[in-house]
Design a protein that fits this description.
- The protein is α/β, with parallel strands linked by helices.
- The chain folds into three domains: about 25-355, ABC transporter transmembrane region fold (Up-down Bundle); about 365-380 and about 385-445 and about 535-590, Rossmann fold; about 455-530, P-loop containing nucleotide triphosphate hydrolases (Rossmann fold).
- It is built from 20 helices and ten strands.
- The chain has helices spanning about 10-20, 25-40, 45-75, 85-135, 145-185, 190-195, 200-235, 235-245, 250-300, 305-355, 410-415, 440-445, 460-465, 475-485, 490-495, 515-530, 545-555, 555-560, 595-600, 605-615; strands spanning about 370-375, 385-395, 400-405, 425-430, 435, 445-450, 535, 565, 580-585, 585-590.
- The strands form two sheets. The protein has a six-stranded mixed sheet, with helices on both faces.
- It is elongated and about 115 Å long.
Length: about 625
Amino acid sequence: MTDGGPDPLDPLDLRIESRNQRRSAGRLWQLLRRSTRLVWAAGRLLFVGLLVVQVVAALVLAGQVLVVEAFLTAVLDLGPGEGVPQGLVLATLALAGLMAAAALLDSVRGSMSRYLGESVARRTYQDVLDAATGVSLRYFESAAFYDRLQRVEGSATTRPFQVTQALLGIVGGLTATVGVGAVLVGIHPALLPLLLLGGLPMILTNRRESRLEFGFTVDQTPHQRQRFYLGYLLTARDEAKEVRAFDLGPPLRARFDTLYGRYLADLARHLRRRMALSTAGNLGAAVVLTGTLLVLVWLIGEGSVSVAEAGAAIVAIRMLQSQVQALLRGMQSIFEAGLFLQDVDQFLELGAAAHGEEAGAPAPESFAEIVVDDVHFGYPGSTSEALRGVDVRIRRGQVVALVGENGSGKTTLAKILAGLYDPTSGAVRWDGRDTREYSRVSVRERVAVIFQDFVRYAFTARENISVGRHTVEPDDGRVAEAAGRAGAAGFLESLPKGYDTILSRLFKGGRDLSGGQWQRVAIARAFYRDAQLMILDEPTAALDPRAESALYESLRAVLAGRTAVFISHRFSSVRSADVIYVLDQGRVVEAGSHEELMAREGRYAELFRLQAAAYLEDPGVAQPR
């Protein structure tokens, strides 16, 4: 995804692509192969078992037609007072047994297909989650990406089950069609081709229905995301206090109702169009069926078909019609699901492409110097650059501060240093080597970054800290050490279950922490990572002045020689940094120590005095010590 270029996730392109897809035998074969591989990978033994059940169920249907013919023949041959012949009893028992077997097989098939469908959904959703966590962070700046992500999340959990059911339905429909069709041909060869013609109208309408469904889903995705977001605001725990403080429930609910009303209106129009197509297809099939039955009546009148054979033929026609319709429904489901699964496949390709883009040699375990060389960066869809020719030099063991007003580019620069973004132009070099030559995963493994909006996981305290280095088993000693260095050990150990306490009231036995306590847990997470470079974005924003002062006074000691880059709006906090970089509108406008920058009487000195004036009675005091 590049700035100013076409959006590869454009919904219009998806709709055009779906309309251009030809419904050919080759495409059906391609979709069947893809579906079979998907189902086979999810549960091959269960898949084989279901195929066996489908074949047996189809043979049972064919057997029922034969038994019905034998039953009717025995009944018609029965004379008054002759008693019940053995053949009629056997035919009756056989018919009852086959009907019971059909019901049992249908029950077994339902349970097995449900479990297999869930297994397929799980496998597909795992792939979607891997792709979503593997793509570059820049994709999350695109609304179209969010639309596709939500759409494929739904497709990954529902469409594979649809594919599974359709694929098994096709196998069962084909087997039953062959078996019952053979019996019908044995009664009279003209009946089968006439009946199969009844499927043609449905074939013609099913394709249009599939395209309508896919287009409707694509069109509705942005509105559905807005509706889900409003539902989240109305029910989420963290948002609940503000919703009540400002009495936002009624207006948010009204917006939710409006969006839902529009959706229902659109859905009604969509369903009317699908119903019209379905009605046309079924009426066409009914006309052909009527013609087939009239032919059967004519054959009876001509003496070509006996009464018993006619009865069996009617049963066979009814069975065969349902199997042909099931076969066509399965094909329609495959085609329809194929559009959605192709959408999923294209999303997964983003993850595969991202993996290739971020591949490279392992990054070195440590560095002597990091150089940010003329770095430019613009967010996707933005007309201006967030960074415009930034130059920064960071030596091992230094504490470097980034300061500046909101929107100056500090956090963006931190993300680039952390390997979360690649520069649009320019480079970040470790000991002279461009970090884009390294695997980005390995670069990120050498960095511990805690942003101001860090995640508060509803996990245990131990897990909240140990996620800082999830690739190894949690080490209780390291967890306690990291908590101690961050000043979090005291309040975590006093929790009901200590480090095993869940840090959220969302789950039973959980406890809440204050904002400042959570900030210390986040800092402990960074310490636990034990990385050579630590990036702290507003690490003391939620701390009181005493705690903030204590943290910065101990920063060099707890870093133990590691390199740190921290961002702060509080200029009093950065005075002890080795180098302070002042950013303004995406550029570095000043750099130096606190004393050097104050002596220059530039941007830093101006901002420092503005903050100092807010705390001092005498605003003329320039450099409080």
